[in-house]
UniProtKB/TrEMBL annotation:
InterPro entries in alphabetical order: His_Pase_clade-2, His_PPase_superfam, Histidine_acid_phosphatase
Name assigned to this protein: Histidine acid phosphatase
Keyword presence, Hydrolase: yes
Cross-referenced CDD domains: HP_HAP_like
Keyword set, alphabetical order: Hydrolase
Protein family according to the UniProt entry: Belongs to the histidine acid phosphatase family.
Signal sequence segment: none
UniProt keyword annotation of Hydrolase present: yes
A single GO molecular function term of this UniProt record: phosphatase activity
Coiled-coil annotated spans: none
Origin species: Achlya hypogyna (Oomycete)
Length: 367
């Protein structure tokens, strides 16, 4: 179909939050955040000056316009400085916003606040990441520090855009342990024994690969030392194995339907509303987590030829572009992950008929 026949009608932009501090302060005996490490991470979090600018960009709200915001959701790992956006993360997401403005400038033309609807999970790091992207993408919306902004970031008290609680990271590795030899890590038993010893786990205690991965990724990004004796190769193999764990869990359609049905229906609902002429905005922004992007990737059966897994990093962006054919009126979707096209299963063209994705979504419970 010639591109001249297609009109871009709506865009959904979903992204993982920016660079952050580790969530879990303790794992085994070798990873135990002391006062010096707390100070290390505390010194790297978003600065008061940055936060003041972000708070002049967008304000927290409920799901509807001018609705009071819900109480912030509790964080896994607990309190400051764990699991917070870093100063680097703020700048990273501002840059992502600038890139998105370049990418969709002709579609947005001269945007108004009403052209954009912003959702975030009810967590500080995703709210601030959303503010950062908005700051980079819509500098014309930013108020002076201390003034109340017009743009709202809409929050739901139970975070349906995240499936973290259902993933049960504390027990995920134990649940999948019997299948661990499906991992692309060639000798997973040897890696597990090595990591078990290096981290200082108790006898019989399983490695919690998701928590290990999130801690190590933070340490790599900020040049913080690994546990004594742990090499970069061990770190990389641990990250690869955890990517397989997520793949194994999310490939289970029954689990994914139970864990993320509401999230799938919400994300797709913005696109569906646009096909029905019921959307009052042109751009939907979803500021969320790696499990959000993974959930959407697996629910919509997206893949990239040659890529074993599509693994979101800090600031990863997944977009869904909704097109309509001028000649036939038919609707199509196009997906992109981190700057490269991804494909819907069973379709060789980047453009996928909207009805195909609609049928996928209908297999998920909405509640």
């Amino acid at each position: 179909m010639p591109s001249t026949d297609l009109e871009l009608r709506h865009v959904v932009v979903a992204f993982r939050h920016g660079d952050r501090s580790p969530i879990l302060p303790k794992l085994g005996k070798a990873i135990d955040m002391d006062a010096a490490e707390r100070d290390f991470w505390g010194a790297r979090l978003a600065t008061p000056e940055q936060i003041a600018v972000l708070d002049a960009t967008a304000k927290r709200a409920g799901l509807r316009k001018n609705e009071p915001a819900p109480t912030l959701a509790p964080l896994i790992g607990g309190a400051w400085p764990n699991g917070f956006l870093t100063a680097r993360g703020v700048e990273q997401m501002i840059s992502k916003g600038r890139d998105l403005r370049v990418r969709y400038g002709s579609f947005l033309q001269t945007p108004s606040v009403d052209d954009v609807y912003v959702r975030s999970t009810n967590v500080v790091r995703t709210i601030q990441s959303g503010q950062s992207v908005l700051h980079g993408m819509f500098p014309e919306f930013v108020k002076a520090v201390g003034e109340t902004p017009d743009v709202e970031i809409h929050l739901h008290p139970t975070c349906p855009l995240s499936l973290g609680h259902h993933m049960d990271y504390h027990h995920l590795s134990t649940i999948l342990k019997a299948r661990r030899h499906e991992s692309p890590v060639q000798d997973i038993d040897a890696l597990e024994a090595q990591v078990h010893a290096l981290v200082g786990l108790d006898e019989g205690e399983d490695v919690q690969w998701s928590f290990l991965r999130e801690i190590l990724v933070c340490r790599v990004a900020h040049d913080f030392p690994f546990p004594p004796g742990m090499s970069l190769d061990v770190v990389q193999q641990s990250i690869l194995h955890n990517a397989w764990e997520w793949h194994a869990r999310l490939s289970d359609k029954a689990f994914l339907a139970k864990a993320f049905g509401r999230g799938v229906h919400e994300a797709f609902g913005y696109l569906s509303a646009a096909t029905q002429g019921a959307s009052e905005h042109k751009l939907t922004i979803l500021s969320a987590h790696d499990d959000t992007l993974c959930g959407l990737i697996y629910a919509f059966q997206l893949h990239r030829p040659g890529a074993r897994f599509l693994t979101p990093e800090y600031g990863s962006v997944l977009t869904f572009e909704l097109y309509q054919s001028a000649s036939s009126g038919a609707w199509f979707l196009k997906a992109n992950f981190d700057g490269a096209d991804v494909y819907f299963q069973g379709h060789d063209d980047t453009l996928c008929p909207f009805a195909h994705v609609q049928a996928l979504v209908q297999t998920f419970p909405s509640q």
